[in-house]
User: Fold this.
Amino acid sequence: MATQTQSPIAMSNTAASEIRKIMRTKKIPDGYGLRVGVKGGGCSGMSYVLGFDKKRDKDQEFDIDGIPVFMDKRHGLYLMGTTIDYHDGLDARGFTFDNPNATETCGCGSSFAS
Assistant:
């Protein structure tokens, strides 16, 4: 039985709407959720992970606006308080991460150091 705790991340309404749209249009299968995490690499040391995946043994599961979200427990330290947003404008398009733990970010915003 899955235990759900309060999510260490938040999601804007715009991001949640875009994720639901992607899940619907790309026909993401039942049992899959949004994987949020970090991995080593990028200009500043760590890069964000955002994609669809099945739940793994070391994952925590959260429900954010009806979206199942999976995150490796070890990544919570780096992502605590992060807000995921989505922009669809002329100057920028895509998902962004507002991470209060980031001490440095690269110019493109896809990697950080903490």
Notes: The mean pLDDT is 87.
